[in-house]
Amino acid sequence: MHGMRVAVISPGPCGDSDAVGAIGRLADALKPLPRPIGVFAAADDIGALVLGAAARLGLRVPDDVAVTAVDDDPEVCENCSPTLTSIRPDYRRMGFEAAALLHSLIGGGGAPARSTVPLVGIIRRASTTGVPKGDRKVADALELIRLHSCNGLSTADVVKTFGTSLHTAEDRFRAATGKTIGQEIISRRLAAACGYLREGRASIAAIAGFCGWNGAAAFRKAFKAKFGVSPAKWTRAEVPKEVLSHPRS
User: Fold this and answer.
1) Of 3.30.390.10, 3.40.640.10, 3.20.20.70, 1.10.10.60, which CATH number belongs to 131-241?
2) Residue 176 burial (CB count, 10 A)
3) Nearest in space to 239 (alpha carbons), one of 200, 191, 182, 185
4) How far is residue 179 from each of residues 157, 220, 222, 236, 245, measured CA to CA in Å?
5) Assigned architecture for domain 1-88+123-130
6) CA–CA separation, 145 vs 141, rounded Å?
7) Contact criterion met (CB below 8 Å) for 45 and 14
8) Predicted confidence (pLDDT) per residue in 7-34, tens digit
9) Which of 123, 172, 201, 202 qualifies as a FRET site for 15, CA 20 to 30 Å off?
């Protein structure tokens, strides 16, 4: 694949009662592979086991082993060490597709052609995020922003992770990321807002509150400055018409 060697690994039984055994089997499979390695796990639980196997081997994540999983279950992904990058499926769209299939089968129609359900996106966490320009303090700052950007996090809060002056912290952050700390906070908040908009289950005012804005007006202003359209118009443009035709749950 793209000139790279691909190995398929099965952890075998990996329930709660055999997690230690599964980690051992994964460690045995990973050990002989050339590094760096990129691992795509079929589910978040398996991704967590891969991280456990990497820890057992003393491998650095993501430098030696980068791990991406599927499902984006926050209880799993946020409690791994390091936190786990995961692909978030569009569960709402999947539900509509399943309902359409069931309706067709009940009505005596054949199963429709296989459809592809778009993803909401990749939720990047520490298992794939390297250290920008080798600056661990910047990496720590980015993780802090990722976790708390929607919870009233300020530039001053982030500067504390550097243990330096504001000027020095901003210089290091900009050199590594190309953004100011404030710009990164806003970018993360807007990314979270887009996730809520795609789900289509919350009002603009509610999304503004969820993502850290003091009111819908401030949110709309920031959103339009970034994307060139209002949140409502962006929603209509991005969400399939058949989804919009259903009332929000």
Assistant:
1) 1.10.10.60
2) 18
3) 200
4) 17, 22, 16, 30, 39
5) 3-Layer(aba) Sandwich (3.40)
6) 6
7) yes
8) 888 777 666 567 888 899 999 999 999 9
9) 123
* C-alpha dihedral sign at 76, 21, 127, 141: positive
The token pair at 119 is 């993803």
Give buried/exposed letters for 189-214 (b at 16+ CB in 10 A, else e).
bbbbbbbbbbbbeeebeebbbbbbbe
Minimal CA–CA distance to 174: which of 146, 147, 149, 138?
138
**Contact present, 56 and 23 (Cβ < 8 Å):** yes
Q: Which two tokens stand for residue 52?
A: 């456990």
pLDDT at 120 over 80: no
Omega into 13 within 30° of 0, i.e. cis?
A: no
> Residue 88 in 3-state DSSP?
strand
